[in-house]
Structure formats: C-alpha cells, structure tokens
Design a protein that fits this description.
Oligomer: single chain
Helix content: 25-40%
Strand order of the largest sheet: 2-1-3-4-5-12-13
Shape: globular
Number of strands: 13
Distance between the termini: 34 Å
Strand content: 5-15%
Length: about 375
C-alpha cells in the first residue's frame, strides 16, 4: 500500500465554502489541438468545488482509502520540522500545486528513500529538482494542458488591466472618488500595439490567439518555430531570441518554463533594451526575471507596468518588494487555480494515480521525468544541468 502526501494551500479565511457562486461548469472534453481532458475511471467530488485547498484534498481521500492507501494532506511546508518534511520521510508519492509548491530539493529527495512519484497538480514542475529526480529514479508527472487556457485568460486580463490603468481606476471608486483625470493619465488603447510572447507553447499560443482580435501586431520567440500556417493566420513575426524581440514590443508576456536557459533572463540589461513605457506580464515563473531589476525599471519609468502572479519564494513574504513597487498588477499565484481549472487538474491527478498504482503507463504527455531521464512533455519543455 502506498502513502500519498498531498501539500495544498490553506482553506479560505472564513472557512471552507458551503455554497458557490455558480451551480455548474461548462463541459470541456478536449483541448485545442485535440488532446483529451483527463479521463479517470471515476471521480468522488463535485466539479466546480474548491479542491485545491486542504479541505478539498483534490477529491482523493475516498478513492485512495477505499483501495487501502494512506492520504496525508497538509499546508505546512516551510522550515525545519514542517509537516511536509516529517511526512516525506516515508512517503511513496508527493502531490503539490505550482501555486503552493512543495519544493523537492536534492536534500529532500535524498531523505525520502520510498519516494517514487512526484505529481504536479497543474503544470510546471520546476519546484522538483529534476536532476535529483533523475538520479534517484523518481517519476515526475504533471497534468499537462489542464490550466493552460486559464493562465492565458489571466494574461489577457492583466495586459488590459495595465494598459487601461484599470486597477487604480477601480481604487478611485472604492475610495469614493470621481477624478477622471487621475484615472486616464496612464490609460492607453491596446489596439495597434506590438505584443510579444517569450515562448509560444500551449499557453503562449493561446495568448496570441486571444489577443489577435484586438488588432495588435503579434510577435513571438520560441525554441520551436510555429508552422507557416499558424504564423500566417495570426500574422505572427518570429524572432530568434527574447533579446531580438523585446525592443520591438509595447507589451511582453513571459510564457516559458523555468530552466537554466530562462532563469534570470529579464535582468537590468534586457529590461533596458525594451521600449520606454513597455509593459511586462509574467505568469510563468518568478525566477525568469530579476526581482530587483523589475522594481528598478518601474521606479525609473523605464517600464510602465509589471503584472504577474508568480513569486519566489511562494508564498511571498510580507516585505517582498513586488508588493509595494509602483504600477504593478500582482496577484497571488492564482492564474491556473480557478475552480474550473481545479476540476481538471484534480481529475488529472487521479488519472495519474490510477495508472501508477495499477502499474499502467502514465500518459506520455503527462510525463516530465521517467526511467531516469526526461520524458514526454519534459523532454520537449525542460533541460537539465547535468
């Protein structure tokens, strides 16, 4: 029997919900490109409920305990003596979300001799040290595509919020004011702007498709060039690198995975090559940008705005400079954790567990590391340092 350790974020401050704003979710059975949504044998929860917090348990308890397995759910994951560290010692499986990552460092992997499977309930497995997972024979899997569209929608929302100066204008209403000049002094139209994405995979391409109707000029850079048909239909301009692309753009959105080639990419040097007054959107990973360089660019006026919902570390401390820098539109890491997305990544997590517990192959598109090497999606999206 397996011990499954699930690390999830805390319940709402006023308690686990007893009712929800909506009664149902739209039925989605496939993603753009044809990949089917997760197909577990069954589910034991109500779609659209809060599954990503501790009491939600990703809807796994009935399924696992009925089969004789042990499920431990915790939110405490930081510091010596955390519940995560205590329970990890004899865990066979660790599950966490990118929004509340349980960092599986080389030291933690070495201290968990039973660990065989690390599941990301969502997408983006950089909180797992992939070199260490490969060395110790730990399979790493994530629920590919489950919340890619969720994140893409968040990117569009943040782009419009920054360009149209929405958040400060809304604050004027909350404060009882009505000074229109204060609201529009930093407000522009998105129409006609040049918008570029760093990476045009599932999320980046979805962002491009959603922004095209705004009559913007679209740019992208990616290690894999899109087809001529896609480039033509969307009017895309391809660039060999981010350094080549960003000087042309009024808005840049980062949609790349974190790996050695992207870590620290947006520092003082690259930010200085962007147009003065350009906007930067980052829903990928915080370490792709230099934390303090972003703060400096906003305070100097080189950048007109920065929005994102990824931080390092997560959760971010109260004194993190991104909380107080000017002209930002930061959120906690929520872009891929809507109730709609939670349903998909919960059923995807169950599908992965069903396969692994039964000794069946895990879907290739879910795999990041398997058999001591990068595999599946991991071989396409990630690189390792050794």
């Amino acid at each position: 029997m397996a011990k499954v350790l699930c690390v999830l974020y805390d319940d709402p401050t006023d308690g686990y919900p007893t009712e929800y704003a909506r009664d149902d979710l739209p039925v989605i059975d496939h993603y753009p490109g044809g990949q089917s949504t997760p197909t577990p044998e069954a589910v034991d929860f109500t779609p659209g409920h809060l599954l990503g917090s501790v009491s939600g348990e990703l809807g796994l308890r009935t399924f696992l305990e009925k089969a004789g397995h042990t499920l431990v759910v915790a939110s405490d994951k930081v510091g010596d003596g955390s519940v995560f560290d205590r329970e990890l010692a004899d865990a066979d499986v660790v599950i966490s979300q990118p929004f509340w990552p349980a960092y599986l460092t080389p030291e933690r992997i070495a201290a968990a001799p039973n660990l065989k499977l690390a599941i990301t309930a969502g997408i983006g497995s950089d909180h797992v040290d992939l070199d260490a997972a490969i060395a110790h024979g730990v399979t790493v899997a994530e629920v590919t595509y489950c919340n890619s569209i969720s994140v893409a929608e968040h990117v569009v929302m943040m782009t419009l919020s920054l360009v149209r100066n929405y958040l400060p204008s809304h604050q004027v209403v909350l404060d009882g004011g009505w000074n229109i000049a204060d609201c529009v002094a930093r407000s522009y139209d998105l129409e006609g702007m040049h918008v570029g994405t760093v990476a045009a995979g599932r999320i980046g391409l979805a962002v491009l498709r959603r922004l095209a109707p705004f009559d913007v000029k679209l740019h992208y850079t990616d290690r894999y060039r899109l087809s001529e048909d896609v480039e033509r239909k969307l009017g895309l301009v391809w660039h060999e690198s981010a350094a080549d692309m960003v000087p042309h753009c009024d808005v840049v959105t980062i949609n790349a995975p974190l790996h050695p080639e992207t870590e620290g990419l947006f520092g003082d040097e690259l930010l200085a090559t962007m147009k003065r007054g350009a906007y930067l959107i980052n829903t990928a990973r915080a370490k792709i940008v230099d934390r303090d360089a972003v703060d400096r660019a906003l305070r100097s006026g080189q950048s007109a705005g920065y929005a994102g919902d990824v931080w390092y570390p997560q959760s971010a401390p109260a004194d993190h400079p991104w909380r107080t820098m000017p002209h930002h539109g930061m959120t906690p890491h929520i872009s891929g954790s809507s109730l709609s997305a939670q349903t998909r990544y919960a059923v995807g997590t169950r599908e992965i567990l069903e396969s692994w517990l039964a000794g069946r192959p895990i879907r290739d598109e879910y795999l990041i590391v398997d058999g001591g090497a990068l595999a599946g999606t991991g071989a396409h999206s990630y690189s390792v340092t050794k």
